[in-house]
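Progress narrative, work stream C.
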Amino acid sequence: MEGLTEEEQAIVETVRDFVDRAVKPVVQELDHTNTYPEALIEQMKQLGIFGLAIPEPWGEVRVSAPCYALVTEELARGWMSLAGAMGGHTVVAKLILDHGTQEQKDTYLPRMATGELRATMALTEPGGGSDLQAMRTTATRAGDEYVVNGGKTWITNARTSGLVALLCKTDPAAVPAHSGISILLVEKGPGFTVSRDLPKLGYKGVESCELSFDDYRTPTSALLGDHEGRGFSQMMRGLEIGRIQVASRALGVGRAALEDALRYAQERESFGKPIWKHQSIGNYLADMATKLIAARQLVLYAARRFEAGERADMEAGMAKLFASETAMQIALDAIRIHGGYGYSTEFDVERYFRDAPLMIVGEGTNEIQRNVIARQLVSRNSVAP
């Protein structure tokens, strides 16, 4: 764990032990029954996992972005849903730290650090997807309140979060459109409904929901920061750590799949020898390990840039793109190595195969990531006409 302090190394090792001791023995049952992991979340609170991005005086231990990435990888190695349970929470903490008023920091961050208050973000809408500027959720100012109307979808932890960073239009007529977008820090109340849970291929246990706002009222002090119209740029910066986190989830899934495949390939024999000695299986393992290590280096590279305060949207996009595609391929290859058993729900590799696609389409699809990367490549290497 090069580059981490001794304290950070100890934190990663503690989370690894938690996964091996508490998560792996119960994950199959929780996943197959789609059960919310309340007991595991409570243990994560006790370990301080929800406060890892929150510094003093609001939190106890704020770790570096590379450490946070490795903690996320360990959680996802046990169950990707656990890493998802703290992903949006971290983005909201980062938004409040960087852009919130002193009152917002003092009100929310201490309880977020302990996990007493859990947070999520609400960006995606049914008709918009990745086109955030086309959102239709509005917040109209009425005296000392905002009146919010609209809907969001695919919101993780919507039922269990007490705070939502809501991306909405405070000036629908603004040109360009992003200049009329703001973030409101909202809590549940009349007019704010979690309308339904969405059925999913994977990512079980943790809920993904639709939200409805029908003349929901919140005080103007809910505006993140002091000025309207800055929400789009605020969220784009927050999504840098969000995409690093999603890339780290992919690492965890890919690593778990590789570890299971490697173990099985040594135990399973065919034609008188362990199957890893057959060239085709050995080649799978070699490619899986090579791609996983390359993906981890890309994730840590993005995390180090983010930690240094440098712009990291291109690097985070690259990490998310490569790590998620790598996880999907490793999960498929793990099924190939397991043969028929890989298709059985008695083995974990089928879960990895169901979980891996989320990182390809979540936090901005990989097609969007390629657009981001291309724009930044040209922007950073522009050629004068």
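Work stream C, second folded protein:
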Amino acid sequence: MTGGAHNRSIFTYDTLVHAISGAAGSVIAMAAFYPLETVRSRLQLEEGRQSKNTLAIMRELIAKEGPCTLYRGIVPVLQSLCASNFIYFYTFHGLKELRSKRDQTAGNDLILASIAGVINVLTTTPLWVVNTRLKMRGVELVPERNNNEYTTLCDGLLHIWKYEGLKQLWAGTIPSLMLVANPAIQFMTYESIKRRVIETFGDAQPPAWIFFVMGAVAKTIATSITYPLTLVQNKLRHGHKFPNLPPNAGTLQILFHVLKKQGISGLYKGMEAKLLQTVFSAALMFLAYEKIARFVFRILLHKPHLR
């Protein structure tokens, strides 16, 4: 697609296929493991909920609120995830197109993934703010806020902008920017392992389970390092219920408050569900992404650049 260094461009056929494949893979993975995402959100945002194992929480929610509660807010989440991963994969692979294959090292992957993550956060944070609200609709965390007035992403964006101000749509942006480290570490680890796997298999196609394991390992490392920031991010997006903190408390205030009141375990509340959900989702997402991309390149008789 690209000839010499002078012809390199971020707008290429390869980049578009990677972006579409990444978006489709992430939607398939999230749809498959969405109940785990619901459990994680409830554990992070409901202060009174005990940290039981994931299966026990799922049974509890089904018994009290019915099975549909496990899939509350799934449509806007899938819409946002599709947009978010399209932007991330497009930016990441587009930036890689601009570099020569000699420059594809773990360090460079980390830099490119971080840039892609920052662009993604700044463009899609409002979608995730609305998502967090929709997922927790009906759960009394911040009683004075009425989330029942909107049920779609579009309505939610307009409602928050009108009644809470434009700034609230970017609530949680600071921890989100810090959390750019998560997909950056994930992509760096995945691409590093992938390069070694491609070298090992040569021209042969690695079996599907290899991509699944690669995705799982990369996400486990990234999530374990950055989980406390995920917890704070969710509280900022939805609104915390700490009586000793102002409503507009910042990232560090919430982080230290949780640490002081609940200890280290408080910063990792919901971690089991998060690991189960993100690790399996990431593993399935990378597997689907690789398979979809390879399929599209094959049917259109186009050979992609080795990544």
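Residues 13-45 form the longest helix (33 residues). No further action is required on this item.
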